[in-house]
Amino acid sequence: MNVLKAALLDDNIEQLEINKEYLQKLGVVNVVATCFEAKAFLKEVAETKPDILVLDLNLGDSYMTGMEVAHKLKLPVIFVSSNTSQYIKEMESLKREFHICVDHLTKPFTETEFKKTLSRFFMEVHFFASQQHVYLDFGSVKRTKIALDSIVYLTADKASGSESNNKQIHFNHRKSENLIDFSFSKMEDKGLLKSQFLTIHKSFRVNINHIKHYDKKTETIEVDIFSSVGKLEPKQLPVSENYQSIVKQFKK
Question: Which of 48, 95, 30 is nearest to 67 (CA)?
């Protein structure tokens, strides 16, 4: 099992050290950040780029709660807190909406309980990490392996006419491609889950991880795509009225 980079956040310094000690004993984790307040934690995460988060929920910090931190970062997270039961619905929503691994451990706990819970969580994280590629057919080129995070959005191929079931797929690292006979209704069969690819319009499906912001005035979202001249450029995509309330959740 590959070593995971972990970032820890808890407003109780003693508990923070215990969590760090227990994690390091497991031998499959490299603790890259430990903080007791949210603002410093976000800065540390930006610099260290962890694979997983270990978060307290109530931080005694008016800046952000642990749940708000998790929603902002959208990384696999295990909540280690004394009041996890109060947040079960939010945890379920976090897991469902962002398609990330989410688990919890209620304080107080023994080292054995910590070890068993974290070991199961790591197995889930590694499993999903291995599923982060899809195989797509681009015209005559079959089964091209594509990283999910490299896909920015898909759109109906207007150049082929309304009767065509072709789509265009846009990336952040390579030029766009044509998907032949590709149906939005069967995206999940290809591994493009609805929890990650958001419908913003009948003709657009957008990777939620690439939504930069939503402009209420123009009713558009902005993403960056790899352009025909070989560099990342901003692109505005229209948001239909029916989907605006959903898109606002991903405003940054």
Answer: 95
